[in-house]
Amino acid sequence: MTTREGLAGVNAPPVDDHELWALAQRGDRDAFTVLYHRHADAVWNHAYRLTASPTTAEDVLAATFLTAWRRRANVRFVAESARPWLLAVAGNEARTEGRSRARFRRLTHRVGPAPDVADHADSVVTSLDDRRRLHRVLAAIAELPATQREAVALCMVAELSQTDAAQALGIPEATLRSRISRARARLRTLLPEEVR
Amino acid sequence: MNELGLPPTRQLPAEVRERALHTVLSGMDSPQRRRLAPLLTTAAAVVAAVTVTTMVAVSAPGPGSPGAEAPGLEQLASGPPVMSGDPLTDNALTRCADAVVARNRTADYPPTSDWRTTEVLLTSPGGDTAIAINDRFACFVGMSNVYVSSTRGRQAGPVAIARLTPAIVVVLNPERHELDIVPRAAFIDPGGAPDAPVQLMMLGSASAPTSNLWLTVPGSYDGLMPDPGPIGVVVEDHRPMPTIGATTTTAKPPGPR
Questions:
Q1: Which of B243, B252, B218 is nearest to B126 (CA)?
Q2: Of A144, A153, B67, B239, which has the fewest beta carbons less than 10 angstroms from its beta carbon?
């Protein structure tokens, strides 16, 4: 199957995410592929902002949709779109990637340096200033408690609405607002130039 | 720029979109697998460096010998385990079941005919493989040894700690509690979800104790990690490894990146 085939490839009328998800739950890979193309940009951008690495973002993108496929039987999203849930999954995948890579760095520190391989994708994706800023923001977000990190990732990094983010996290909107408020206050001290 | 001063979103490059989708489509039928070959290479080296004196040899012919292709499934009292179609995983699962039968320990495990690989925890280029079986216990298949953890381990609140190899401990977490272990520097954690039902911890050395590790399962357990006890089953098994296939859940298709 080419990757653009399936529902999208036969000029089928647009269907909403719920319909596509229901088809995917019955094993329809074409429907799942349509979902992928619909949300891949957002998931990849979110992953990139959370990892500051285009290469890792690509891995997170694939891992997010694989997780979605494997969990499709047990997942029923309540928002209009699958995107909030996918972004929440991407956040988890990015954290897992980050942990693995951090431990790998510690291991390689123990066993000696690895060959210096340039990340070619880096050079075409973003400027050095952007990456520096991203690293600074990510370091600050990492200082937050886990619940605030999740909220910040969805609302301030992925720029989801608070309603969608609360639904994706399965918490009341008021709780989300409270977490964002506390996180914003903390971030103001950590990132005085970025958060005003 | 948004509130955090993050750079604007960008269009996903077409080749990245296609490559990632290819990875997704090719991974849909595979058990979950992690990409930690370098870690496992180190772990395998630690394991290989340890002499285990209680091994029992599986009477398997060497490569090229008559009958070398028969993995000995006929020995299994309850039948062969459930195959996934992935040669590496299936080879590992078969050898794990063989190991339990060879040690006459079938009573301590679910019937082998019910065994299925629920997650590939680690793989290495040499073919060393660690798998989770039925989300209940783990098995490590190396170049010359097969190790199977117990299904019970030593209880620590709602989770249990079991030794898989001299240098690898598993956390059995059937209720999928999110847990944390400190200090992280004391072991090499291959990563994965903090609430996975079977999690590996590769200790820094074969004799490293776990008693200096602090385990926290929020709301349930907050204390020193118990001693994981002995390895469940160890057998010497020199059967050849299958070659690792090109398809893993994260393998990239050929082509420039």
A1: B243
A2: B67
**In chain B, pLDDT over 70 holds for what percent of residues?**
67
- The Cα B237–Cα B52 span in angstroms is 13
What's the token pair of residue B155?
A: 């209880």
Which residue pairs, CB below 8 angstroms and at least 24 apart, start in A139-143? A140/A187, A140/A190, A140/A191, A141/A187, A143/A186, A143/A190
Contacts of A170 (CB under 8 A, 6+ apart): none
For residue B232, give the nearest of B166, B181, B188 by alpha carbon: B166
Of A45, A100, A108, the CB nearest to B191: A100
Give the tens place of pLDDT for each residue, B160-182. 999 998 888 899 998 888 888 87
Residue whose tokens read 């291959």: B190
Partners of B141 in the beta sheet?
B129, B146
What's A153's DSSP letter? I
Query: How far apart are alpha carbons B159 and B216 in whole angstroms?
Result: 10
Cα B58 from chain centroid (whole Å): 21
CB B138 within 8 A of CB B164: yes
How many Å apart are CA A28 and CA A15, to the nearest integer? 14
| CA B64 and chain centroid, separation | 28
Question: How far is Cα B105 from Cα B135, in angstroms, rounded to an integer?
Answer: 19
Does A69 lie at the interface with B, CB-CB under 8 angstroms? yes
Tell whether pTM > 0.95.
no
Instruction: Say which residue the tokens 């690989």 belong to.
Output: B117
One-letter amino acid at A145 equals: P
Helix (H) / strand (E) containing B31:
none
Find the helix or strand (DSSP H, E) in which B159 lies.
strand B159-165
Which residues, at least 6 apart from A79, have a Cβ–Cβ distance to it below 8 Å?
A85, A163, A164, A167, A168
User: A139 touching B, CB under 8 A?
Assistant: no
Mutation pick from A61, A133, A149, A184 vs chain B, by most beta carbons of B within 10 Å, is A61
DSSP of B110-123, one letter per residue?
--GGG--EEEEEEE
Chain-centre distance for alpha carbon A130: 18
The C-alpha atoms of residue B117 and residue B131 are separated, in whole angstroms, by: 6
Å from A99 to nearest chain B CA? Answer: 6
Beta pairing class for B56-57 and B233-236:
parallel
Torsion-angle region of residue B130: left (phi > 0), alpha (psi -120 to 50) or beta? beta
